[in-house]
Amino acid sequence: MTSTQTRADPILRIESVTKSFGSFTAVRDVSLEVGEGEFVTLLGPSGCGKSTLLRMIAGFEQPTSGAIRMRGQDISQQAAYDREIGMVFQNLALFPHLNVFDNVAFGLRARRRTEGIDRKVREMLALVGLEGFETRGTAQISGGQRQRVALARSLVTSPDILLLDEPLSALDLKLRRQLQGELKRIQQDTGITFIFVTHDQEEALSMSDRIAVMNAGRVEQFGSAVDTYHRPQTEFVARFVGETNLLRGQVHAADAARVTLRLDGLAAPVAVAVPLPAGETPPGQGDPVAISVRPEHVELGRPGLHTCEARVTSHSFSGATITYALDSAAGPLLARVPFQPGQGHPLPDGQSVSAGWPDEAVTLIPDQPGHDTTDKEI
Ligand SMILES: Nc1ncnc2c1ncn2[C@@H]1O[C@H](COP(=O)(O)OP(=O)(O)OP(=O)(O)O)[C@@H](O)[C@H]1O
């Protein structure tokens, strides 16, 4: 611990960081705290500023304003090689003229380490499952194995933080899913703080302790994977992280415990009771709001729910579930329902059904006037 560090200091604190390139602002007023040993993911569409933020943490770019602190110390102006931060890139940049062992040993030799290189490199190769590959050239191993070498090469110098910029995006889906699990295991085994960049929401949900969802240079929400999916705070987050139904309406009544809404478009006014998040001020009567209901929480033909009449317009079968596209008075709806063997055939197009959802499946999203709700692009 240094003289400027206190026990409460997180390993990384980003304070109101903005980065502009000429008149274009790539990262806007971002503040984040990352705890020791956390797996944090920056998630967002192409061009939202994820890599720029990561490059500022690494020291390859300087913030235009704001500060980046590591254990309390401002590192914003410190050179990249003076930071105890490793980085794994999307394009691996392994040294083609060096074999696997020498690629992994590179960082130790560059730091003029002379002792324990052999032991440390073999330890790293065992960690990433590449024992026995020491003398292979980088052209004699697969894409997934190359990515493991890149990871071992970044971990060998025992960085305090490892930054990973879309390290799995060049791999096919099956290998990608396998390496996601391995990366998570390696992060837990080593206890190193990981900051991972991806535009793949499933990847982010399956690996992260916390996710920072970015849109147009800003962090829209920073929270656990479960909250990001089940409690989106903005329309952008609700749409970008998974599929959702966004229904609009006005506040009918609100108190500290509940908010009741009337949804637009329904002939008979239907009230939807929504529990208000703790500590939040209730919205006023007549305020415009939206609700998010995930397709898997929309149930068809079940009595006792808040329902609206709907008509099937199409369906897609995916083995365990069927996703119905529905036309309802409240707008288009998606319903994803389990499909049991022996259940017969899916509901035909044109079939009338009542669609409903339980109270606890509803997330209230306050109206955000002028807010950018850029659609997801993956
Ligand atoms: N050196 C630069 N000069 C000018 N503009 C830049 C520079 N670096 C990044 N940008 C712009 O900043 C914006 C954010 O880029 P960034 O690479 O951070 O996005 P990203 O979210 O990582 O996207 P992707 O997922 O496509 O890599 C983009 O519009 C990009 O064109």
TrEMBL record:
Q: Which SUPFAM superfamilies match?
A: MOP-like, P-loop containing nucleoside triphosphate hydrolases
Pinpoint the ABC transporter domain residues. 12-241
- PROSITE patterns in the record, alphabetically? ABC_TRANSPORTER_1 (PS00211), ABC_TRANSPORTER_2 (PS50893)
Q: What GO biological process terms are annotated to this protein in UniProt?
A: putrescine transport
Locate the coiled-coil region(s) and give their ranges. none
User: Cellular component terms, GO, for this chain's entry?
Assistant: ATP-binding cassette (ABC) transporter complex
Gene3D superfamilies, per this entry?
2.40.50.100, P-loop containing nucleotide triphosphate hydrolases (3.40.50.300)
Q: Can you tell which superkingdom this protein's organism belongs to?
A: Bacteria
InterPro entries xref list: AAA+_ATPase, ABC_SmlMolc_Importer, ABC_transporter-like_ATP-bd, ABC_transporter-like_CS, Mo/tungstate-bd_C_term_dom, P-loop_NTPase, Transp-assoc_OB_typ2
Q: GO: which molecular function terms?
A: ATP binding; ATP hydrolysis activity; transmembrane transporter activity
Q: Which UniProt keywords apply?
A: ATP-binding, Nucleotide-binding, Transport
Spell out the PANTHER family in the cross-references.
SPERMIDINE/PUTRESCINE IMPORT ATP-BINDING PROTEIN POTA (PTHR42781), SPERMIDINE_PUTRESCINE IMPORT ATP-BINDING PROTEIN POTA (PTHR42781:SF4)
Report the protein name in the record. Answer: Spermidine/putrescine import ATP-binding protein PotA
Give the organism, scientific name.
Pseudooceanicola nanhaiensis
Source organism phylogeny: Bacteria, Pseudomonadati, Pseudomonadota, Alphaproteobacteria, Rhodobacterales
